[in-house]
Amino acid sequence: MRYLPKSPQDRIDMLAAIGEVTPGVSSIDDLFATIPAEYQFKRDLAIPRQHGESEIVDAFKTFAAGNATGYTSFLGAGVYRHYKPVLIDTVVSRGEFLTSYTPYQPEIAQGTLQAMFEFQTMICELTGMEIANASMYDGSTGAAEAIMMAVRVTGRNAAVLARTVHPEYREVIHTYAQHQAIPTAEVPFDRETGRVDLASLDASITPDTACVLIQSPNFFGTIEDVAAIAEIAHAKGALLIVSIAEAVSLGVVRPPAEADIVSLEAQSFGVALSFGGPYCGVIACKEKFLRQMPGRLVGETKDASGKRGFVLTLSTREQHIRREKATSNICTNQALVALMVTVFLTVYGKEGLRELGEHNLAKANFASRSFTADGGARQLFTTAPFFNEFVLDLPESAEDINTALLKEKIIGGLPLRKWYPELGPNASLWCATELTTRAQIDATTHALSTVAVPAGAAR
Description:
Elements: H1 8-21, H2 53-65, E1 72-73, H3 86-92, H4 95-98, H5 110-127, E2 131-132, H6 139-154, E3 158-162, H7 167-180, E4 184-187, H8 198-204, E5 209-215, H9 226-235, E6 239-244, E7 261-265, E8 281-285, E9 296-302, E10 308-315, H10 335-373, E11 378-379, E12 389-393, H11 398-406, E13 410-411, E14 414-415, E15 427-431, H12 438-451
Parallel strand pairs: 1-13, 3-4, 3-5, 5-6, 6-7
Antiparallel strand pairs: 2-8, 7-8, 9-10, 11-12, 12-15, 14-15
Helix pairs in contact: 3-10, 5-10, 6-7, 10-12
């Protein structure tokens, strides 16, 4: 934007001063002579008039009316629709939390520090780990940081990834790994169970393997056999990292206590979908790995008067120590998003989280049975347990089915051909949560039966 002198004399003085350095400048337009005429903006900006508050509110209502409303969605794949208690926004909107940043000064940040301490405690209870940090960016960066942590712990320099780990998590991991000189290998999945192929896993681990990374529930929604995988990894001196993309599963699924490191995406715990972020990644681990944990850790202490207090006890980020000694480049403050998770878990409690998990499990089971019995689809990987996601083999292309369903205001499952071409063009990942109603499932079943080949017909 051009500078506008306050008075004609100011303009003359300014041009005179510029002319002493740059001869030939005698007008404001001369300053822009090097810009081709067709790219010069010479008209006034089309800025609308000022509006009153009531007019602005009406305008935003009009904008909102243009959004997609009344749609049923069966998308999951790492981002999940769950009920968000209104208390969360009430708490995180308070200025003490909303406008604060890194709590370097504990004497004025006890509220934030205590909330982070409670967050860490709850995460440990959920995951079966002994230590948890105060959050990473999201589940994908948490998984990548966990691998680098394992490399530091073991002194080895390679990683083995299950192909059932979220494809986009794997892409983020590869981005990190290539610049850290960490070679990675992928292990295929069993075509019957949708779980990691244990024989291939055993063969993939070498003396250079620092860790094995799996996801459970995995990208197909299937629960992995964590104990069996841990036994294989530990027998060869590698650490086991378990990534959890759907945190609500911990309400009913046994925590991966056999793991050495757990990387968790806590978005399901009260964090809005928000078009992909910000979310809440977490790393939890065994206490013996504490010094190699990235991010920061809040601890409990006592002040000079013997009163309970909270402080940052471990901050191995490049903000706090020399860059070459830092364990992480995660430097922003995720405490506000972690606070959302803390409020969510406080509201639900242990019994509430268990019931929430049971609702998700029941809805997904009902939806899968309905879609396969009456919707003309076939469910894959039925010989292993699943949580709130499942893979369907549709009678037609998943993209074509979704296009037809969209006309009925139904957003179908995620087509898997892009990441898993071996499953064919009809494979699709579907998700049902506690917000998915029976009426929506019934309506979708009917829509599937009208756009797909009827059950029992030739495929």
